[in-house]
Amino acid sequence: MKKIKLGKSDVEATRIALGTWAIGGTGWGGTDEQQSIETVQEAIRKGVTTIDTAPAYGKGLSEKLIGQAISEMDVNREDLVLATKAGIDWTEDGNYRDSRPEHLEKELEASLDRLQTDYLDVYQIHWPDTDISIEETAKKMKEFYEEGRIRAIGVSNFSPEQMDEWQKYAPIHTSQMHLNMLQRYLIDWFEYCRNHEIATLSWGSLAHGMLTGKYDKDASFPDDDLRSNIELFQGDKYPHLIDAVEELKDFAAKKDRNIIQLAVRWLLDHHTGADVALWGARKPSQVEGVQGADDFMLTADDLKVIDEILYKHVDDLDNGTLSEYGPPVRSEA
Ligand code: NAP
């Protein structure tokens, strides 16, 4: 699998990484633990040695299953890139943001423990916490970095203004943000990162499964599945997006690929796309096609055809909002 250096850090990640939100189960209608472990192992066997997770994914469950999957495999820790996050806590009522230094200290220890490792390759602040200053959080992350407990500092869902502020106090090596060919509202943030030598990781790369082509216009989801609540799946645009996806499937087939591979390549080959595309999966069969997404490239003409197909069906791919996803800050929780 092809690799890329993450910004100014010395971490080399695979350009396609495994996303493990669904493995945690929350927001995804639950999880099957054994299948999740096998998914992580299958991804690693296929060469996807970069894994993104977070304590918030199933209150530590996603990290724990990853730790277990790795411990049961014959793999060198140095050959893996483990990226996790901090800055979210929870009660029985739900999650809220907490990036206070003392909370980060506790979280780092807990994540290292669940992942069964003594360092992290990438440590990301999951969502900006506007209850405290960016300075306090950034300085604490810099401390972790200087102590060698983390190899790269990351932020996630931070605006360019927030990243500007952060960089007064600490470096940013990676930034994780929402992007896929159907949801481009943060593309300017990707451009900002490109201009500041910050490596980008895309989340929602497969539009939470829409870009797998498996849904039709009548698809429905359980209440505890995020897709039953978000605009992408529930809004007026949904049937038009499905029409576009159907046509994209034909275009992918002409190139001897499937739509998932096309969607991942769009992220990796678009001029303001991602350095690393997170491919969310929770069943071993779902990572079957990763190598076929790694070993080809879309040309400028291909990217043009994709846009022609998409804009024929949907004219506002640039609209969207992060507010559907982020947990509240402490003061509003
Ligand atoms: P995604 O990658 O857009 O979609 C993943 C889902 O697509 C899978 O869970 C699975 O859903 C379906 N899928 C994947 N491969 C498939 C295949 N081969 N065949 C059929 N279905 C397939 O969604 P995402 O998980 O939201 O985003 C990716 C990763 O980004 C996450 O896992 C997480 O690591 C990260 N993330 C970060 C943030 C953040 O705030 N930083 C937010 C969201 C996500 P089903 O099994 O339900 O069908």
UniProtKB/TrEMBL annotation:
Signal peptide: none annotated. The keyword Oxidoreductase applies. InterPro entries: AKR_Detox_Biosynth, Aldo/ket_reductase_CS, NAD(P)_OxRdtase_dom_sf, NADP_OxRdtase_dom. One of its GO terms (molecular function) is oxidoreductase activity. This is Aldo/keto reductase. It comes from Halobacillus salinus. SUPFAM superfamilies: NAD(P)-linked oxidoreductase. Keywords: Oxidoreductase. PROSITE patterns: ALDOKETO_REDUCTASE_2. The keyword DNA damage does not apply. One of its GO terms (cellular component) is cytosol. Residues 15-309 form the NADP-dependent oxidoreductase domain. Gene3D superfamilies: NADP-dependent oxidoreductase domain. PANTHER family: NAD(P)-LINKED OXIDOREDUCTASE SUPERFAMILY PROTEIN, NADH-SPECIFIC METHYLGLYOXAL REDUCTASE-RELATED.
